[in-house]
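Aggregate trends can hide what the representation actually does to any particular protein. This step matters because it turns folding into a mapping between discrete strings. For completeness, the protein is quoted in full, as a sequence line and a line of structure tokens:
=====
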Amino acid sequence: MPTRLGAGPSVTTWLGIDFGGTKVALRTETDGGEVREHAFQWRGRGLESDLTQLAAEIARFRLRIPGDYAGIGVALPATVGTDGLVAAWPNRPEWIGLDLRRTFRSVFGDAPLRWADDGDLGALAEARALGCPDLLYVGVGTGIGGGLVAGDTLVPGPERGSFELGHVVTDPEGRLCGCGRRGCLQAGASGPATLARATRLRGTPVGHAELSDGLLADEEWAVQAVDRTCHRLAVAITGVQELLRPGTVILGGGFAAGLPGFADRVARHVAALARPGVPAPVVRASLMGPLSTLHGAVALARLFGSAPLRHTVR
């Protein structure tokens, strides 16, 4: 159903939601080009607290856009089974076992809704923005999301799961990951992992702003901490390049976007790791910064009424 805004003619409105480990972002777009956004931080821990806060924030945001949504797209960093139950979410373990279909129905009613992996939707948004049919997306934030578009199609597809680059093992003897394995890319190259490394090297606690300032000042502890992260990312990217040959790699996510020269550092490591005869892909920063996944969620919502999206619907 289209949404009516004010007393004017009816317009069609789509809602995109990006769930993160620390915050949630919302964005609506209309066929008339109107955009509204809202974001909130999770207040605490616990499923009941999260769901109560989510319902309240959604209701508050919806007051600004009365009526029904033509489609809702949700980006999730969690692993969700075909039964709609959350199987794993290291950054919000309280959600494990939650029935998403039932939960979202209680929050959004009967509005048509789809969800997909956050990294997959980041790839979808970046590929559309660039007009690029073959693209690898790497989102570096609280965790690490990955998405691959090959021949204008998301890979591997919902029937085979999401493109979990963050859980590719890049260091078998590395740190323990929230998933229970040791040495996942996420365990050594996510935002929290990088800040923890910087803290160990500096000897005092390091926040994101301090790390950024340290890079600009060329402080050794900051350079080493970030360079280690960039090398780990390059190792994973090189593996994907050997198998699937994406011509372009996009680095996004809130953590990466806030560090000067981050994409260039990764690009240098990717070039150094390239095998003779296998050219390194182009590595560049995201066009949308930390908003790639949110834009991808809106793109997913817009697919209602179009051809079935066999590679993202879950």
